[in-house]
Structures are given as C-alpha cells and as structure tokens.
Design a protein that fits this description.
Rossmann fold; alpha/beta; 9 helices; four-stranded antiparallel β-sheet; 26% strand
Length: 272
C-alpha cells in the first residue's frame, strides 16, 4: 500500500493509480468556462446585500488565497482536500452564494466581481449544481420536481419542457421513473434525479459538491460514469471529493486544497 501525505492531506491507497493521472488539454481562451486569477475567498455575512465589499472584507474570514484556476469546456476537474479546506467555499463563490471580493473571476461568461443580486438567477441558468444531499421536493413526483425548475427558469412551451425532461431523465438512466415520488427511489436514483435537474438548462459547467458522499461504492461508480459522459459531451465538470477510490478509477485534473492555498497536483509524480 502506498500512502500520500502532503500538505497535511491524506489521500489513501493509490497503488493502482500510476498511469494517465493528469491530461490537461490547453484549450483556447474562448472555451474557458471558469477563470480565477489572484483570487482570495472569504466567508462573509450578507453577501450581495447592502454591505459594501470593503465592509465584507473587514468582517469576513479569509478561507483561501492566491487561487488561480482555469477550466475549459469538457474538462473534468477534482477539488481535493480535507473537510474544511475550502473546497465547498470555492464552489459557493462560483455559484454566487458567496461574493467574490478579491481577485478576478468569471464563470459561464459572468464576471464574479461585477455580479449583482439580480444577476444571480441568470448566472445559475448557465451552470448546474449538484449537492451531497439531493434537495428534492418530497411532496412532488420526479416529473414535477423538474417541471417546477423549468417554469421558474423561464421555460414556457409545454411540449419543449416535456421533451427536455424526457431527455435529461434518459441521460441519467431514469427514463421510466418520472412518475415516482422521491421516497420511492434509492439514494443513488435520487442523486441521478438531482443531476438531471442540474442539466435542464444545458449548463456550460456542472459544479458538484461531494456528490457521492452519501452513496455506496457501486452506486458512486455509476454516478461517476454519468459525470464523465457529461464532460465528454462538452460540459465542464468541477467536483469536490475526498473519495480516493473514485480518483483511482476515474483520473482527471486535480486541484489540492491545503493550508489556505490551492495548487494543481500531478498525483503520479507525487507517488513516484
């Protein structure tokens, strides 16, 4: 067994993780869907409220500094690190739950430094978000869970809505489950519904925060296969995880979070 302990991060057994670890395709600038440069990430109360950015900087807690990241269309990128290392905080900044206060950042064509509260719903139509907990409406069937999202995000044509719902349900291998209630589905099936929901508006980037954290290894493997297919079809996937088995079986670019910093790592070189 080989164990990787660097920057106080434990990665576990990577004994079979010795080939094709990082394949970083340097795509052209116009294909980049996420760009962060000299960014610092803060936890601050009342983001996008009446509090000025200067006040938020004074009252906020700096979680990460000197973050530089570029993600292109179709790339799969892992965010790796211990719980509390800043992975989720970075994702929250990307989907505008937290305000970017320092540095330059864009996602799906939106400038995060210039973003206003009224812009957030439009930004979120360009990105997909998948959480560890599925966040489905328990009193509505799966079709209505997806239907309400589409109506809320501006879809009006009933036929197009139904066609899109059928399409995303087929993408996650749940084509016959639209009439089921969430409690009638397994945890893995509910997570696949959450992925289908994230794909409804044809996002440019999918942000997934520990999406397999509540799942058994076999079910998690199925979720990873779906994510890889999504990336192959051109949607970037940025996924936080500390599940080392997934990284072994589905190698991709890896960003390590430790000690308030981030850096891209070549895990093959780390293990040599």
């Amino acid at each position: 067994m080989k164990t990787l302990c660097k920057d106080n991060v434990f990665f576990g057994d990577f004994s079979i993780f010795t080939r094709n670890i990082i394949q970083h395709d340097f795509m052209s600038e116009e294909k980049q869907v996420v760009t962060l440069k000299n960014v610092a990430i803060y936890l601050a109360a009342n983001p996008f409220g009446r509090t000025s950015p200067k006040q938020l900087l004074r009252s906020g807690v700096k979680v990460l500094s000197d973050v530089d990241l570029k993600v292109s269309a179709g790339e799969f990128v892992y965010l790796l690190g211990r719980v509390g290392s800043g992975k989720s905080t970075l994702l929250k900044t990307l989907y505008a739950e937290l305000q970017l206060l320092e540095g330059d950042g864009t996602i799906a064509g939106y400038n995060l430094r210039e973003l206003r509260r009224r812009d957030i719903p439009y930004l979120r139509r360009k990105i997909g978000i998948v959480f560890q907990d599925y966040r489905l409406l328990d009193d509505r069937n799966i079709f209505m869970n997806l239907y309400y999202v589409m109506k809320a995000t501006g879809w009006k044509d009933e036929q197009k809505i139904r066609t899109r719902i059928r399409h995303v349900m087929k993408m996650v291998n749940l084509g016959d489950k639209s009439g089921k209630m969430p409690f009638e589905l397994s945890g893995g099936e509910q997570q696949r519904v959450a992925i289908a929901r994230a794909l409804l508006n044809k996002p440019r980037v999918l942000l997934a925060d520990e999406p397999t954290g509540n799942l058994d290894p076999v079910t998690a493997d199925g979720i990873m296969q779906i994510f890889q297919q999504i990336a192959r079809e051109g949607c970037a996937v940025v996924m936080s995880t500390h599940n080392t088995a997934l990284i072994e079986n589905y190698p991709a670019r890896a960003i390590l979070f430790a000690n308030g910093k981030t850096r891209e790592v070549d895990l093959k070189a780390e293990l040599a």
